[in-house]
Amino acid sequence: MFKKATLTINAVSVLLILFILSSRAQSAELKCTYVASMGKPFLARLVSPYDISDVKISWLDRQTPLQVTRGDGKYEASILLGSDVRDTKPGIYTLTVSYFERGRQWTLHHDIDVRPKSYPVQELKLPQAMVTPPKEAMARIKEESLLISNAINTITNERHWELPLKRPVDGIVTSPYGLKRIYNGSPGSPHRGVDFRAASGTPVRCAADGTVILTGDHYFGGKSVYVDHGNGVISCYMHLSKINVLNNQRLKKGDIIGYSGQTGRATGPHLHFGLYLLAHAVDPMPLFQ
Ligand SMILES: [Zn+2]
């Protein structure tokens, strides 16, 4: 009789210990690549069977909160990340994810090897004033670069983007992302977007749902539109002949943001499309499929 009672107490203790251990165990899983090519975007997904909230990620010195969605009995927070052919050095970087689940805060660290990628060289002949802007244009360029920097550094909590992104025009790629550019014989900044062939007046469509955060006629980009898609994802459309949207306007994927042209530093009519992930300019092409 006495022996049986002891056994029962032991069984309860074992269950209690198992319960404590399981409640401390990590349950959310971070699904993300361990190797990424320079400039190529990738998706990081935090997936949990439990309700997660207050999800934040930190990558290449930038942070953003993530929106949590629920489907198939799972909770998920996704983010598009990448490295910038101009600014990131190859190496191993740590992606840090923190979140709240089952009454406590959790943190995950995930190392990603950003490997070098060699991009082709392109020589361009441009009017010298566009390569070395005249002194009187400097104040304007400085002012515009501040506006652009603010736009691409925009971080908003609500996620509006979905994959795949919408290709903004149907034309072929005339200059891919990452080209090492030589302007009139002098090396310049690499190409941080994609140029699509587009005859003047071709409708240019928004890559995903979002909000217009900047429009303007800029020295380099010409008539330009910047759209915030949430959680640090920003798209931009340059050299337009006409802008069709207003600041703060809400857009749906596929809406016409303007018409292509050759305003600003352009050698002919085309669309320059840029995609910024936490302010890092990445190659958007893999995200259109
Ligand atoms: Zn371009």
From TrEMBL:
<protein>
    <submittedName>
        <fullName>Peptidase family M23</fullName>
    </submittedName>
</protein>
<keyword id="KW-0732">Signal</keyword>
<dbReference type="InterPro" id="IPR011055">
    <property type="entry name" value="Dup_hybrid_motif"/>
</dbReference>
<dbReference type="InterPro" id="IPR050570">
    <property type="entry name" value="Cell_wall_metabolism_enzyme"/>
</dbReference>
<feature type="signal peptide">
    <location>
        <begin position="1"/>
        <end position="27"/>
    </location>
</feature>
<feature type="domain" description="M23ase beta-sheet core">
    <location>
        <begin position="190"/>
        <end position="284"/>
    </location>
</feature>
<dbReference type="InterPro" id="IPR016047">
    <property type="entry name" value="M23ase_b-sheet_dom"/>
</dbReference>
<dbReference type="Pfam" id="PF01551">
    <property type="entry name" value="Peptidase_M23"/>
</dbReference>
